[in-house]
Amino acid sequence: STSDWGYVGDLVEDDDKIGLYSYKVQSTITSRLANTMIQAKMVNNAKRPQHIVFDVQVPKGAFIDNFTMDINGITFTSSIREKAEARKMYSQAKAKGKAAGIVRSNALDMENFKTEVNVPPGMRIQFELHYQEMIRRKLSSYEHVISVKPGRLAKHMEVDVRIIEPQGIRYVHVPNSLGDHFDGITTISKGEKKAHVSFKPTMAQQRKCPTCSSTAVDGNFVVQYDVNRETTGGELEIFNGYFIHFFAPENLDPLPKNILFVIDVSGSMWGLKMKQTIEAMKAILSELRAADQFSLIDFNHNVRCWRDNLVSATPAQVEDAKKYIQAIHPNGGTNINEALLRATFILNEAQNLGMLDPNSVSMIVLVSDGDPTVGELKLTTIQKNVKQSMKDEFSLFCLGIGFDVDYDFLQRIATDNRGMAQRVFGNQETSAQMKNFYNQVSTPLLKKIQFNYPQESVSDVTQSSFHNYFGGSEIVVAGKVDTENLQHLESIVTATAANAELVMETLRDVEELDGFMKKDKYADPDFTKKLWAYLTVNQMMAERNTAPTAALKRNITKSILQMSLDHHIVTPFTAMLIENAEKDEIMLADQPKDPRRGCCPGTLGLTPNAPNNNKGIPAWANVTAVPVSFMPEQRSPPVSSLSINRVDND
Amino acid sequence: PHFIIHLPKSQKNICFNINSEPGKILNLVSDPGTGVVVNGQLIGAKKTQNKKLNTYFGKIGFYFKNKGLKVEITTETITLKDGSSSITLTWSDTGHIIRKQLLISVKKESNVTISVGEEMSFMVLLHRVWKNHPVNVDFLGIYIPPENQLSPAAHGLIGQFASEPEVFIYQQRPGQAPEKPQATMEVKGNKLTVTGGLQKDYRTDRVHGTEVQCWFVHNSGKGFIDGHYKDYLVPHLYSFLKKP
Question: How confident is the model at residue B229 (pLDDT cuts 50, 70, 90)?
């Protein structure tokens, strides 16, 4: 509530006379489930009413589950509704001039959540956003990224992260990502299973310079950690009727891989993108192991192969491939279909000729920065062609550079073919991002991984068979478990490792975690349920993406919707309604789509057809989606890299 | 380490101790016929007691030459090596590794069984001690069933008993203590004085063990084993025993 603030008289104000009383980020990670709250308390000390902006960034893939707003004691609370229903309510309110949207937009690997409220002089406003996300293990660590951009000096500034990991915490590291300015301000305390990270700069420490009135706090606060891993069979955590199985074995030799790099060298790659791609490829080629086989395909409107077949990654071949890639000059169109079909042909032929080690892992890595412009242009046909030509034991990984590429499409063909996709941004760091992605898939340790649980005791198990397990990552399986009638839960994981078959058994007392969880006041007692919901919804969304029939798609949509409503999470099929107690003022927050599909590319400021939501809304709560920014300049991301998804014309 | 040799035909158990230096590797089985080697590397207690440093098996190596497979078991991990590749499980795992009809079964914090088809099996037991114990350390025990189909060429501290020697024990008489009678044992052409006593088999009760009545051969099994115990020291964990 805005009524319980302390003394607000000594706030530092910019010219706009808006004071930031406090800016707090509180995050609690319970067994990889992060619950984050961002709260801003502001006051309008000007003699006129003005817009106050709450603009925060939420990691992509996080589920927003609550947003509240308090304007001088009048509270707006949120609820998750089916999208059509939410929009109907929103339209009705809008017709009465009592509604406004919250703008959510995509930006790099974060998503913006922004709202503006017109606040009368002397009034206080408090925003509070809650979201949850599952922290995925990448390159042997969990990384929790919190965007901290208060925009101005805050009287009370605090980022507080608590980590509770029943498996035990191996290390906690907080890189100095906010800059040298904040050296030594972060405190880390680490116990066996709990850790606490606190960043609490004073107002003087926040200042860019001793006499500056602007804040130096602007960036990502990053917490990295890993957990102890004693067993190869993974960790079974059972609590409140759900189980989570974390599987990340180490001490295994890598499986040999057969890898085909398919690189877009069309004209659009010219310049920095190509330079960075060449740099990354040279580093990637150097890291191939002697047991690996590889080849390179570069394509524009034509498709060329460095070698027509897979060759062993000997130092001489690697050097030759590096010379080849160095000599590439991008030009021409983009024939993705032909390039991918050529790659699958090479893999198929190698397999037919018995040249692939039965224990090896075969994969294609596609690097592209744009849509097809030559040959087959229809994305669904390309998807179908690739799926038909890819054997079950091959996987496809896609790297989409920049925003001119249809990332949804890359994600679809990757998941359709047992792989994954990642967007990299066409900037100075492209090379590092590409290498980073490659490193995630460069060390296959296991293949054909199957998780088994006693059927009579578990239900609603998430995906339980996996094509590959890569070193440094983690497989997570969840399900419901009948803890009432069960004392122990057993799992048996089978997998193929380099030169051996593995069968791993894990047995856990279903009440083992109870004592630990009940003792910790910060631990989220619903973490198993939320992780299960998170995995299930994501899995259903992936299934929906590749569903072959409309009927199946509809059924999956229905299930996703039900899950979203049951678990209070915003998905593409739901929206969050924010209402005041009287329910006569409504805001709507939809989930944004991929920027390529956004409605209004390149528009962040006023749009000519923007509805005038202000009309009729009382001055004390004049909620508007029109982003008239009163925040410092650096808060707005570059217009060209963004598109926004406005509810009015979504 | 202490050895208990069960002789099925004569239904007798013969025991002996071998105390060498930490780091030394003792050959337990060396069978050029089947290509199987089992060696044990010694570790020492944390400190001496009564001016004596006890040694235990801290690492056991199995080499199945015909399959090209090696298994290394320490008090921390269990590793299968096949050429340059390897797979490691820890004693916190329960699981199986299957490779070329070799099955390694790990029972969490308890034992590892290595089976080669129907022909052979070995069991390694983990003995964990309190980690802050001033003297004792974790160690391993190994159990080799007499039914294992080793070839007549098998040798080693245990392997040599795959072909059971004739053993006569007679003239049982009171010893220094009533529970430790003495007797005369004739074996391999040697006449030895042996002491009756108890040793422990930990297969069924890993904590307290089950007492086994046996005849103890003094001086590191001298006279019962072929040659001297030092003849069984090998340079590497996977070395075959060289014939003298």
Answer: very high
